Amino acid sequence: MNEVSSQNGRKKSGQRDLGIPHWVRACHICGIILTVLGFGLSMCVNGFTFPLFPSTVELPSSRIHAIALDSQGRIYTYSQYTYRLQVYSPQGEFIRGFSSHGLSACRIDSQGHLRGVGGNWVFTYTLDGDLLRKERYDPDVHGEEFYARGDERITDASGNTYGVMPWPMIWPRVEKVSSSGNRVIVISQPLWMWLIQSPFPVFVYIFCGIGLYWTWYFVERRYNKRFVAIGCDKSDVVKKG
Fold this sequence. Notes:
disordered C terminus, single chain, four-stranded antiparallel beta sheet, 6 helices, elongated, alpha+beta, Thrombin, subunit H
C-alpha cells in the first residue's frame, strides 16, 4: 500500500517536471506548416507549371539568368527556374510574360525577333512569345551571336548598360548604368513576391520546417525516455505549458 502511494506521489510530483512543453508542439505545428508551404510553392512557381500562368501574370524573378533589349527599350529577362521570359518597360514596369524552352542566353536580332539558345538548339520567338523556328546549335555560327557579349549584361544604342545585380538567386534585380555613370535599379520585385520565390527563400521554408519537426521528435523522444526511467505511463502525466 505504501509502495502504491509512493508511486502515485511520484507521478503527481512529476506532473510539472515531465510534461512535454507547449513550445515543442508549437515547433511541430510550425514545422508541418512551413514544410507544406515550401513544397507547395516550389511546385506552383517552377518550370513544370509555367504554361498554366497567363501572359498577364508576373512571376517571381527567381534567378535572372539572361537579359535582352528591343528597339523600343523594353527589357526582357529570363529566369532559369520558371523557364519564363518576362517583358518590362524601360522604366521597369511589367508588361507581359511568356514561357520558353530552357535557355542559357537570349537576344533580339535585327528582324525584331527574340532568339535564345538552350542545349543543342536555337529558338526564335516573336516578341509576343510565339515560336517561329527551331534550329540546331552550331558553335561556329551561333557562338559569337550569343556568348560574345555575355548573357547578364547588355548595352543599348545610347550607351546605357543593363546588368544583373550580384546575388541574383537571393535578390534578383536589374541595374541600369547610364553613359555618365548614374546608377538606378530598373527591375526589382515587391516583398510579397520575393517571399514566394524559388529556390530561395522557398527551400528555406522546407529546411526550417523539417528542422522544427525533428526538434519536436527528438525532444518528445527524450521525454519518453524519462517516463520509462521512472516506470510510469506518459498518459498519466499532465503535459505542462
